Amino acid sequence: MLELLETAFGMGWPLLVLLAGVLLYCQVRIADPAVRRRATFKTFIGMLAVALLLIAVANYKLNFFGNSRLLPISLVLITTATFVTALYFARVSAMFKIGGFMFLVAAALSGFGNWLPQVEGGFPPPPVSDLKGYSIMPTQKLADEGENILFGGVGLSRVQGSVGKGQCPLCHGFYEGSLSERAPNLLGIPERAQKRLADPRYRKGSPGERDTVQKESFPGAGTAETAEEYIAESHVCPSCYVVRDFGDKGTNDRVSGMPMIHKPPISLTLGELAAVDTWLFVREGKEPPPYEEIVKAYEKFIPKSELVVDGNQEPADVPFGTIVSGKEPVDQIFAKAKCVLCHTIPGIAGAVGTVGPKLVEKTNAPIRLKDPAYRGNAKTVRDYIAESIIVPGAYVAKSFPDNVMPRDFGDKLSAGALTKIVEYLSQLEEGKAPPKM
Q1: For residue 125, which of 319, 271, 265, 264 has the smallest C-alpha distance?
Q2: Same domain for 245 and 280?
């Protein structure tokens, strides 16, 4: 209730001040006591009507992403305001009565609609991804699929901010001059893979001698022998070898911050991994290894129990274009939307990313809303969170680069998913335990 009144006054205080000025004018300039009383009374009625309208608008604004069953209250308040105004302002009473009747009908219909059991819309069931047939694709088609997985579309590899299911552009650069501060630039990776194999720190053939925390992808996997095997190993076991100066802070390059992309939340299949690697070769003008050879390289470093082959995914494991329906628990929503890769989110398993800011929004949002650098339209914590997801450029947290977070979550998150995310993040406060899910 307090938040509702704060929002209402924050939007309409200039109008209320103006009406207060009119009230003062009535007291000072009108000499006839009877006329002054009538003018004062009508001014009070006007202030009451304006207050009801402001509360109605604030209620609609605060509950648009929340409990929609409260929205008809706004129409009831507007109806009340119009009928009160019509009762005491005879010259415009007919107009206000007509408007009030219209709002009364709208409130009745809206209330009835919200009283009915709610059925939330969602995305259609995604097709099982194996039907693409990666193993029989021509080389260029397979490379195009790889670019789509990396950047969200063919031809988008040079478009800043383009991010696909693989999420790699969030940290890696792919062309000369590309921003690549958190992970190595992958330009020329087919040739540089050979140099990595020759690096004394790689310990080719002797994984037990590595200085990294994780020695092998799994016991007995060994090390890569070819450039393609090195690429495969770096994808599924990024901490087996960490390129100098690209390890997690404080680990002395012994642990990589990159996730294993064959596991959730990214979960690329063997076919998708082969498509990505094919693109890495083709875009350099190099002849890629045959599909079967790429798959064999991955099978060397992925235990059979973790292999996800084409056609073996559950239908609920949706492609990047349609992330979640909103019916999932909030921790699954964060995982499927890939939030855990870039952000630290208290209470969410695996959400220890450092690419983006820590999401303790009950603490962060009020501070950022007051920051002169804030360019958005939000007034409340919940509005700020929703806005930062849909329009991430409205405010870029200090020390974090712009154009990293995808800007199409407004299309890829259902209303239910967005509501659950906003509800959870709005409760996270620095130094306090996260809420129970």
Answers
A1: 319
A2: yes
Distance CA 109, CA 131 (A): 46
Does residue 343 sit within a domain?
Answer: yes
190 C-beta neighbours (distance < 10 Å), count? 20
Q: Tell me the torsion sign for CA atoms 99, 103, 106, 112.
A: negative
What single string gives the DSSP state of each residue in 8-72?
HHHHHHHHHHHHHHHHHHHHHH---HHHHHHHHHHHHHHHHHHHHHHHHHHHHHHHSSS-GGGTH
What are the Cα distances from residue 346, in Å, to 327, 410, 414, 434?
21, 24, 23, 6
Count up the domains in the chain and report the number. 3
Q: Give the E-state strand segments of 241-370 in sequence order.
A: none
pLDDT at 370 exceeding the cut of 50? yes
- Residue 430 domain flag: no
CA distance 317 to 323: 9
| pLDDT score for 419 | 84
List the domain range (segments joined by +) for residue 383.
330-425
User: Distance between CA atoms of 213 and 242, rounded to whole angstroms?
Assistant: 10
User: What phi and psi values does residue 324 have, to the nearest 5 degrees?
Assistant: -145, 155
Same domain? For 346 and 298 the reply is: no
Of the listed ranges 41-45, 223-227, 369-373, the least confidently predicted one is: 41-45
CA distances from 248 to 152, 245, 253, 258 (A): 27, 9, 7, 9
Least confident of 33-37, 88-92, 373-377: 88-92
Q: Which residue has the tokens 């004062």?
A: 40
DSSP H or E run through 368: helix 361-369
How far, rounded to the nearest angstrom, does the alpha carbon of residue 415 sit from its chain's CA centroid? 12
| Helix 415-425 / helix 381-390 crossing angle, nearest 10 deg | 130
Query: Could you give the 3-state DSSP secondary structure of residue 344?
Result: strand
Name the more confident of 392 and 85.
392
Joined together, the tokens standing for residue 144 give 């195009």
Which residues sit opposite 324 in a β-bridge?
A: 413
pLDDT surpassing 60 at residue 116: no
Instruction: Determine if the pTM surpasses 0.70.
Output: no
Contact of 435 with 403, CB cutoff 8 Å: no
